[in-house]
User: Fold MerR family transcriptional regulator from Nocardioides caricicola.
Amino acid sequence: MRIGELAERTGTSVRSLRYYEQRGLLRSERSSGNQREYDEVAVERVHLIRSLLAAGLSTETIDDVLPCVSEPAIQTPRLTRTLLEERARIDADIARLEGMRRLLDDVIAQAPPVV
Amino acid sequence: MRIGELAERTGTSVRSLRYYEQRGLLRSERSSGNQREYDEVAVERVHLIRSLLAAGLSTETIDDVLPCVSEPAIQTPRLTRTLLEERARIDADIARLEGMRRLLDDVIAQAPPVV
DNA sequence: GTGCAACCTGACACCGATGTCAGGTGCAAG
DNA sequence: CTTGCACCTGACATCGGTGTCAGGTTGCAC
Assistant:
């Protein structure tokens, strides 16, 4: 498929897909007139990229991490370290968010009876 | 206290404190020669602001929300709505992060025996 | 073969919180 | 009084992912 279809099927902008490619996260064949051509697997991959971005990983980190998501065997000690760091960061983020969730809960609980 | 002390006691840059004031999150008296003067309460307030920022709230939203954290009574229906929206957003963030945490767990579990 | 939609590259703009610099003033100690 | 540090304002820079525009090419449909 071409980039427009991939964009639509993944809920992503064309701009972002080109950016992901530029950052090395996504590859494409080029067809005759230099237009990007993607296979089905790309859809999954883009979803994964977006999830990792949404979790706060940078494209650079994703570039490190992606290969061993698809092929776990490639994992090197250095990569494992990156993974552990990112997991720790995510844990910290979750903890912070849960703290704020509780705070908001308290504040909301004291609201005038809109309930 | 003056701004330098507040910065140090809250682990914040002077720059950020001025920014918070500019965004309406923090107030200060001005003393004789136009220098900001803070009371003890400011320390707590800055900590709260930073926590909310870290939870992903914008200064604008914090400006909405802060008054009813200190004085729950002020909460208006509109404010309550903002609070509910932010809580929902935080819940979604937590869920997404937990998903990625699980993903990373899986990947890490398949690592070569660095353990 | 003509036209329009989709694509290409490259560049610049944006957002939001923060860093940083410049040029000037306040304040306390020597 | 002088020196040096803390403070003041205002402006511009940064980062990363994305929007958007310009100017040009491809590809499909009529």
Remarks:
- Residues 13, 15-16, 19, 32-35, 53, 58-59 of chain A lie near DNA strand D (CB under 10 Å from a C1').
- The first strand of chain A starts at residue 29 and ends at 31.
